[in-house]
Write a structure and sequence with these properties.
binds S-adenosylmethionine, Rossmann fold, 224 residues, 12 strands, 25% helix, alpha/beta, five-stranded antiparallel beta sheet
């Protein structure tokens, strides 16, 4: 096993090096991912076909600001696939405020993920109304947005103004097809990135092929 940093690991499984995080809840699987024990420590394989953050790492993500103790605001938690790996990484002293508005997936997220992990604070709210997240305290180090809404960039920026510390990192998943089906993905990405220029320095744009064909990841730093 090769240790990259304390955040994620490369573990040999079925003859290949695979991405993994150290399981914060040993014995527990979130999405039937494989659990592997090495030297008494349990790891969960992190599937880049299921998580766009893992796909970004596979596709040469340069800066990885999630580490022990990081405070994260995550919009679009869904059933918690990616949130669970971030929860592994930030550890018991970190926090993942996780916003999800659809009650059906949120129930699944609560039962199977948030209730088992003390560092996840579930917020069953609409990301369009960040002033109504009463449980978020202080500013966070990273905001991660994956909500697949036509106005997602505006929603994301509003959340950053309220909760992201200056110099904090911003990850935005751009669903190139949901914004406007008539435009090319390249044009959609350019237009969304242009909206960020006032408050952010763009660090990297990542095409998520072959793991995900309909999304790109934008990584930026908040100037305030
Ligand atoms: N990020 C997840 C992962 O990697 O495991 C997948 C997210 S899924 C593509 C998008 C999620 O955003 C859905 O669960 C949807 O209900 C949620 N969502 C969409 N609009 C939202 C909003 N305005 N407020 C909160 N959640 C929203």
């Amino acid at each position: 096993m090769e240790e990259v940093n304390q955040s994620f690991f490369w573990i040999k499984s079925e003859g290949e090096k695979k991405l993994a995080t150290e399981n914060l809840v040993p014995g527990n699987q979130v999405y039937k991912e494989k659990l592997i024990i090495k030297k008494g420590i349990e790891y969960r394989l992190w599937d880049p076909f299921r998580s766009k953050l893992a796909a970004s790492i596979m596709n040469e993500l340069k800066e990885f600001p999630f580490e022990n103790k990081t405070k994260v605001l995550y919009l679009g938690a869904s059933t918690g696939t990616t949130v669970s790996h971030i929860s592994d990484i930030v550890g018991p002293s970190g926090i993942v405020f996780s916003v999800e508005h659809a009650s059906r997936v949120a129930r699944d997220f609560l039962d199977r993920v948030a209730s088992l992990r003390t560092n996840i604070i579930p917020i069953l709210q609409d990301a369009r109304k960040p002033k109504e997240y009463f449980s978020v305290f202080g500013k966070v180090d990273v905001i991660y947005v994956d909500i697949a809404q036509p106005d997602q960039t505006k929603i994301a920026i509003d959340n950053c103004h309220l909760f992201l510390k200056k110099g904090g990192y911003f990850f935005l998943v751009i669903k190139t097809r949901s914004i406007d089906v008539t435009k090319s993905p390249k044009k959609i990405i350019e237009e969304e990135v242009a909206k960020l220029k006032t408050n952010f320095d763009i660090l990297q744009l990542i095409d998520l092929h072959p793991y995900d064909k309909d999304h790109a990841m934008v990584i930026a730093k908040y100037r305030g």
